[in-house]
Amino acid sequence: MEEVSSIFEGKLDILVNNVGGGSMKPAIEITAEDYSSSMALNFEACFHLSQLAYPLLKLSGRGNIVSISSIAGIGATHGCAHYGSAKGAVIQFSKTLACEWAKDMIRVNCIAPGTINTPLAQWMVNDKELSGEVLEHVMGNQMKWQPS
């Protein structure tokens, strides 16, 4: 944060917590390492970076945090117990920060998109076990943009 502080003259107007990823597997197959890795990537990074950015956001007098969660953090999704739990934690954390940091003029919001058809999500398109119906539900109209 020292480098960020020096670049932005001691204050920060916005922090975007945009990180995520993981594998799909039934809850019974999730190892302790899978769980820890998912929580570290999908939640803990957001938690700690927000804490570190707080002093700079407060000094701006109008700080903003936007955290990217997932629809998996809102509703049940097959094979995403560890990922969905972590993204649900991002949503709750964002709500809590919004309440706690409003007095410091820091707005906190959370966005929960569905799966986005990127190279990172390409495995879903290539997975023969995922039916077209599941893919259409997960990726919606993005499947229509898939090159043939």
Description:
- Helix content is 47%, strand content 9%.
- The chain has 148 residues and is mainly α.
- The chain has 2 domains: 2-114, NAD(P)-binding Rossmann-like Domain (Rossmann fold, 3-Layer(aba) Sandwich); 115-148, no CATH class.
- It has a 3-stranded parallel β-sheet, with helices on one face.
- Helix 2 packs parallel to helix 3 (81-101).
- The protein starts with a helix and ends in a 9-residue tail after the last helix.
Q: Largest sheet, described in full?
A: 3 strands, parallel
Helix content: 40-55%
Structural class label: mainly alpha
For the secondary structure, the number of strands is: 3
Stretches where pLDDT is under 50 for at least 5 consecutive residues are none
- What's the gyration radius in Å? 18 Å
- The CATH class of the largest domain is Alpha Beta
Q: Can you tell me the CATH superfamily of the largest domain?
A: NAD(P)-binding Rossmann-like Domain
Mean pLDDT figure: 86
Strand order of the largest sheet: 1-2-3
- Please give the count of helices: 5
Shape annotation: elongated
Structural domain tally = 2
Distance between the termini: 45 Å
Helix and strand sequence? HEHEHEHH
CATH architect. name of the largest domain: 3-Layer(aba) Sandwich
Q: If you consult CATH, what is the topology of the largest domain?
A: Rossmann fold
Task: Estimate what percentage of residues fall within beta strands.
Answer: 5-15%
InterPro entries: NAD(P)-bd_dom_sf, Sc_DH/Rdtase_CS, SDR_fam, TR
GO molecular function: oxidoreductase activity
Keywords: NADP, Oxidoreductase
